[in-house]
Design brief:
By secondary structure, the chain is α/β, with parallel strands linked by helices. The chain has ten helices and eight strands. The protein has two domains: 36 residues, no CATH class; 249 residues, Vaccinia Virus protein VP39 (Rossmann fold, 3-Layer(aba) Sandwich), CATH 3.40.50.150.
């Protein structure tokens, strides 16, 4: 069997398959293409589709994520400063009220836009993507009501990476993915897309959930089945990611994560940073 029409093949697979074909290994090329999977987990996407209209209801199922937003936002801002990202951009028009002016930031798995909106208010040029169409519609509607210009798109990270491949100035100064990687079908494909989307001097930020007995008790059992703060079925415990796994997977994709911190509940409400990473944690770094 031969492959003549490569236009239907995802760019990532195309490169690999073309090399096999050039080696006359057509059988392996076909096998690899047929086994290709995207980073999207259809079951998880369907779960979030059901919540599309409730993203901005702080008293609804997204309430816990609203409480979690300030510390995530602060971490992203702190990492932009820590890695001197603004020093590498041509636009030097930052001001006290618009400290992110000139920065091109990508939000992968943006949901309803809880992080995209405050970053846009700080002057960043935001592109925000999500696999859930209802979430993107909710995000667009809310941004419009706030007078914010955010480029929302319903697509996968690897699809966007393929779209901008070879385009000058199309990559992003900051790529962040918050509470998303524990929902993807393939971490390898997902992280490879991030590598292709960020500039060489850019910043990668990931927040996620550790796979520990503590996270099983508090996030999966406690929040989903006892308190009901999170809809049942939101998480799959086996897909939680340890910091070591995340760092190793990122290294394999060409991303060096060299800053980690935990997020823990604060006695004042909300969350604060901590050296304890047993449940929620964040990581940041750059391309190798």
């Amino acid at each position: 069997m031969f492959i003549n029409d490569m236009s239907v093949i995802s760019g990532t697979v195309f490169i690999h398959a073309r090399a096999l074909i050039q080696e006359n290994n057509h059988e392996q090329a076909v096998s690899d293409i047929m086994s290709y999977q995207s980073s999207q987990d259809q079951k998880d996407t369907a779960q979030f589709d059901k919540l599309g209209a409730q993203w901005w209801d702080q008293n609804g199922p997204m309430g816990p994520l609203h409480h979690f937003t300030p510390i995530r936002l602060q971490f992203i801002l702190d990492m932009i400063g820590r890695y001197d990202i603004a020093d590498h951009i041509a636009d030097k028009t930052q001001s006290e009220s618009q400290p992110l002016s000139g920065l091109r930031i990508l939000d992968i798995g943006c949901g309803g836009g809880l992080l995209a909106e405050p970053l846009a208010r700080l002057g960043a040029r935001i592109t925000a993507i999500d696999a859930s169409a209802p979430a993107i519609e909710a995000a667009k509607s809310h941004a419009l009501s706030q007078g914010l210009e955010i480029d929302y798109r319903c697509c996968l990270s690897e699809e966007l990476a393929e779209e901008i491949e070879g385009q000058d100035g199309a990559k992003f100064d900051v790529v962040y993915s918050s509470e998303v990687i524990e929902h993807v079908a393939s971490r390898a494909l997902f992280l490879d897309a991030i590598r292709r989307l960020v500039t060489h001097e850019g910043l990668v930020v990931i927040t996620t959930i550790n796979r520990t007995l503590a996270s099983l008790a508090t996030v999966k059992i406690g929040a989903e089945y006892i308190t009901g703060h999170i809809p049942k079925g939101t998480h799959q415990f086996e897909k939680f990611v340890t910091p070591t796994e995340l760092q190793d997977d990122c290294l394999s994709a060409g991303i060096l994560l060299d800053h980690f911190t935990g997020f823990v509940p604060s006695v004042r409400g909300g969350f604060r940073t901590s050296s304890y990473m047993g449940v929620n944690y964040a990581a940041a770094g750059q391309l190798k």
